[in-house]
Design goal:
The structure holds three protein chains of three kinds. Chain A is α+β, with helices and mostly antiparallel strands. Chain A contains eight helices and 21 strands. Chain A has two domains: about 220 residues, 3-Layer(aba) Sandwich (Rossmann fold); about 120 residues, Nucleic acid-binding proteins (OB fold (Dihydrolipoamide Acetyltransferase, E2P)), CATH 2.40.50.140. The two termini of chain A are about 30 Å apart. Chain B has a single domain, classed as MetI-like (MetI-like fold, Orthogonal Bundle), CATH 1.10.3720. In chain B, about 50% of the residues are buried. The chains are: A alpha+beta, B mainly alpha, C mainly alpha. Chains A and B meet through strand 6 of A and helix 7 and helix 8 of B.
Chain lengths: ~375, ~270, ~300
């Protein structure tokens, strides 16, 4: 998932600030979103992600800075003429209109003929899988169907950017997973820049080309899903995106090219510069390890890299996976690790001795 | 969970509520000048007498004019206040809305006397116009109450969606907000109309020598001979009220159904 | 680019839009309600003589009203009547509201509420007059009873009495009492009641320990909504009381219009408003206590 340089910038935030009275909702946002990208704004509630999305749509004035869409400053461009369309969290389907009238709502001032507009509406409905639903009353639709109407209504205007404000949060788990896949397909089909706001890290990882993780009105990290997961920029990001084990470490030498450390429980190791996240020194140097980078080695298996011994403190069986908490001598807290339950692999009991395989390459150092 | 005695009580209570009104048709068609049992036979004379009364028509005409003006003005003022209270935050909001709603909890006598004192002091002659002024004042709180619930059930993102799809604030109001609150507007108009038509104290004290329906009825009570005709008139008025209320209720329910909401009952 | 002005700008636009939107209604209320009420306050502090209103401010009118025998008696009667009306109305209305909220199927609730509110929207004057017809000397009850041979002479206790006034007003404000109680009962989470019974309480105990306290805000709203208009009622004392049992509103009319003493009339009106306000404050404080008790 890399982006070639010739892709143009669709959205550009230049030091965007937003105050609500004394409340500082956006604290200097700088970012660019490329044309054709599926981009996510991810963060806990109240982090400013929805506010940032609404500054693109034009529903929120910014207090300072600039928002550019396709190279043009949007400072004095009202929402109704911006080249963006939005899918609202509540879907905002007009309850007094039919599905057709909803989808065709934005075409009112379109110079095309009635027949052409009707064809466009039919195409849009077909695209979102609602062929034949045009005459239905909008308020009689299910949640998933409303979602599709909202999508069709926004996409029919062929916006440069489609904004999605937590569009899947009101759906149940099965429906949500289905819609995730459909949204990805739809985005590839229409090629429009999608910007998704979500608080669900899994949803963001599954769907996005790139993700901006936001905390307290600032972007904490902007990266592709893999980088975000494997090389989180701070402990806070690491903790928000999945689970990570943290252990205190001592820096022995830091030459810039390699960093030598001594981590509690794991001993000495040397890390390459891309594994070292600088700027998060709170609580002293800390290493982070994802649960799946630790492997329990059973009889006869040998570690591809290194091994440590520990005691199983807790076992949580999930069906496809088993989670273990394993305490290591010298480490202040037990390590959480996950093992896939494949045929023939036993599930260890509490108190059992475990041999863990790990690799310094999977370690991140926050300092 | 059935409780027969409670249901019996509720039904008895309904009978108590309706009993006096049930007497209206009984005596409106009763062939006797005295309102007393036993009934003396069927007649439509009282309706004929009512129909022949020029004064009554004059009063009814005045009442209609006042009720139409007051309900339109109060509903218009109600739209502004309800929209402001559901959509905006502004300084002094609670105080301003409190003042607007105050006539709902103020004895009408005090409202009408206060208005009367000022109108006399600044030399405004008492007329139909002054009755309208007073009626707008007392109808507005009801309009605001009805319209606030209509505006409240409006999801703000509907407006934003219309705006986002290229409409201006004005066309958004026309295409989205107005159709969705229209049932509220209609029921507000009907309720204000009914209140104004029924109102007595303000019409009595602020009307000068202009007589409206309620004042006319009040005057007739002094003459026992006129009472059967008033019964006939009352019967007609009750029928009109019930029709208007049924229409209002129909629009209220249709409004709820249209937006897919849940009926929580009642006007107030 | 500085944050003070930009945040100020945001607030201004929102506040300005809101104020603009509310201004037609607010200006109307200020001109036709606030200004006249202030005028009444000023009048009440002046002295009205043949030559016109005095310029100086004095409490003479209030002293006259509060110490005058007639006015005291009238205030007391008005208070008694509306207190009784409120008590009767709310006590009679509560079981009905309870029945509709708890024992009527949800889809039929609005039908019941509609039925209850219809009589309220029919002509108030005619409803009051009908009670005169029912309760009067030659009224429906007397003529009916005499006809049946149960009594020989018309009963006099039922006409022109405080009792008939209370009856009439209680009937007139019935719907006003039921609605707020119904709304507060509707808001009660039904699982509370199940929880109460689950913890081994009887239905009656559950009602007194859970339902009744939780519906108290509705009861208090009902009390206020009935008390306030009844204490200022003009029509019922005129028609039912036959003018022999005047209340505050009739007194205001008599002083202001018949005796043409605007200052004294204003003082009576202000006194009535003070009584209403005092009662309202007491009940609102009670309401706050109940709400506080609930949040614990």
């Amino acid at each position: 998932m890399t982006f070639s340089a010739e892709k143009t910038n669709m959205i550009e935030f230049r030091d965007v600030h937003k105050y609500y009275g004394d409340y500082h909702a956006l604290r200097g946002i700088n970012a660019t979103i490329k044309a054709g990208e599926f981009f996510s704004l991810l963060g806990p509630s109240g982090c400013g992600k929805t506010t940032l999305l609404r500054t693109i749509a034009g529903f929120e004035d910014i207090s300072s800075g600039a928002v550019l869409i396709d190279g043009k400053d949007m400072a004095n461009v009202p929402a109704n003429i911006r080249p963006t369309n939005m899918v609202f969290q509540s879907y905002a389907i007009f309850p007094h209109l039919t599905v057709e009238e909803n989808v065709g709502f934005g075409l009112r001032k379109d110079p095309r003929s009635k027949d052409e507009k009707a064809r466009a509406v039919a195409e849009a409905l077909e695209m979102v899988g609602l062929k034949g639903y045009g005459k239905r009353a909008a308020h009689a639709l299910s949640g998933g169907q409303r979602q599709r109407v909202a999508l069709a209504r926004a996409l029919i205007l062929k916006p440069k950017v489609l904004l999605l404000d937590e569009p899947l949060s009101a759906l149940d788990k099965k429906m949500r997973e289905q819609m995730q896949v459909e949204l990805i397909k739809l985005q590839r089909q229409v090629g429009i820049t999608f910007i998704l706001v979500t608080h669900d890290q899994e949803e963001a990882l599954v769907m996005s080309d790139r993700i901006a993780v936001m905390f307290e009105g600032q972007i904490a990290q902007l990266a592709d899903p893999e980088t975000l997961y494997r090389r989180p920029a701070s402990k806070k990001v690491a903790d928000f995106i999945g689970t990570m084990n943290f252990l205190p470490a001592q820096v022995i030498s830091d030459s810039g090219a390699t960093v030598e450390i001594d981590a509690a429980g794991f001993g000495r190791m040397s890390l390459s510069p891309d594994q070292v996240m600088r700027g998060d020194s709170e609580g002293g140097p800390t290493i982070g390890l994802r649960p799946e980078t630790l492997t329990i080695l059973f009889d006869g298996q040998t570690a591809s890299d290194r091994e440590v011994f520990g005691t199983v403190e807790e076992v949580v069986y999930y069906g496809d996976m088993t989670y273990y908490d394993v305490s290591l001598p010298g480490a202040p807290e037990p390590m959480r690790l996950s093992m896939r339950n494949v045929p023939g692999r036993p599930v260890l009991d509490r108190g059992a001795q475990a041999r863990l395989g790990w690799s310094p390459g999977a370690v991140v150092l926050f300092r | 969970m059935k409780n027969p005695s409670l249901k019996l009580y509720a039904v008895a209570y309904l009978i108590f509520l309706y009993a006096p009104i049930a007497l209206l048709p009984l005596f409106a068609f009763n062939d006797s000048k005295v309102i007393a049992f036993p009934l003396a036979g069927f007649t439509t004379n009282w309706f004929a007498e009512m129909w022949a009364d020029q004064q009554l028509f004059k009063a009814f005409g005045n009442s209609l004019l006042i009720a139409v003006c007051a309900s339109v003005l109060a509903t218009t003022l109600g739209i502004f206040a309800a929209r402001a209270s559901t959509r905006y935050k502004f300084p002094g909001k609670a105080g301003i809305l409190g003042l607007i709603m105050l006539p709902m909890v103020l004895p009408e006598m005090i409202v009408s006397m206060a208005l009367l004192v000022v109108l006399i002091a600044i030399g405004v002659p008492l007329s139909i116009f002054t009755i309208i002024l007073g009626h707008v004042l007392i109808c507005t709180p009801f309009a605001v109450a009805i319209l606030t619930s209509a505006f409240q059930s409006l999801d703000r993102s509907l407006e934003e969606a219309a705006y986002d799809l290229g409409e201006t604030p004005a066309s958004t109001f026309r295409l989205i907000i107005l159709p969705l609150v229209m049932p509220g507007i209609i029921s507000s108009l009907l309720i204000c109309f009914t209140i104004s038509l029924d109102e007595f104290i303000i019409a009595y004290f602020l009307g000068g020598n202009q007589t409206v329906l309620s004042v006319y009825i009040f005057g007739q009570f002094r003459f026992p001979a006129k009472v059967p005709a008033v019964m006939a008139l009352g019967f007609v008025l009750v029928c009109i009220s019930i029709c208007l209320l049924t229409i209002a209720e129909y629009f209220r329910r249709r409004g709820i159904a249209k937006t897919g909401g849940k009926d929580t009952g009642g006007f107030l | 680019m500085n944050r003070g002005s930009s945040s100020g700008r945001f607030r201004n636009t929102e506040a300005a839009n809101g104020l603009m939107m509310v201004s037609p209604t607010a200006i109307y209320a200020v001109l036709l309600l606030a200004a006249p009420l202030i005028a009444v306050v000023l009048y009440s502090l002046m002295v009205d003589s043949k030559v016109g209103l005095s310029a100086g401010l004095t409490f003479d009118n209030y002293i006259k009203v509060w110490t005058g025998r007639i006015d005291q008696a009238l205030m007391l009667r008005s208070l008694t009547v509306s207190a009784m009306v409120t008590l009767v109305t709310v006590a009679l209305a509560y079981p009905v509201a309870y029945f509709v909220s708890f024992h009527v199927r949800p889809e039929r609730k609005s039908m019941w509420i509609f039925l209850i509110t219809i009589p309220f929207w029919t002509s108030y004057l005619i409803r009051v007059f009908l009670w005169k017809v029912i309760l009067g000397y030659n009224g429906v009850i007397n003529s009916g009873l005499m006809n049946l041979g149960i009594i020989d002479e018309p009963l006099t206790v039922i006409n022109y009495s405080l009792g008939s006034m209370i009856m009439t007003l209680a009937h007139a404000y019935a719907a006003f009492a039921i609605l707020p109680i119904f709304v507060s009962l509707e808001k009660i989470d039904r699982s509370f009641l199940e929880a109460g019974q689950d913890l081994g309480e009887s239905k009656l105990m559950t009602f007194f320990r859970v339902t009744l306290p939780l519906s108290m805000p509705g009861v208090i709203a009902a009390v206020l909504i009935v008390f306030i208009p009844t204490i200022g009622d003009y029509v019922t004392p005129e028609l039912i009381g036959g003018g022999k049992l005047p209340m505050i509103a009739n007194r205001i009319e008599a002083i202001m219009l018949k005796q043409n003493d605007k200052a004294l009339g204003s003082a009576i009106a202000m006194t009535a408003m003070l009584i209403v306000a005092a009662v309202a404050v007491v009940f609102l404080l009670l309401n706050r206590r109940f709400l506080k008790g609930q949040s614990k």
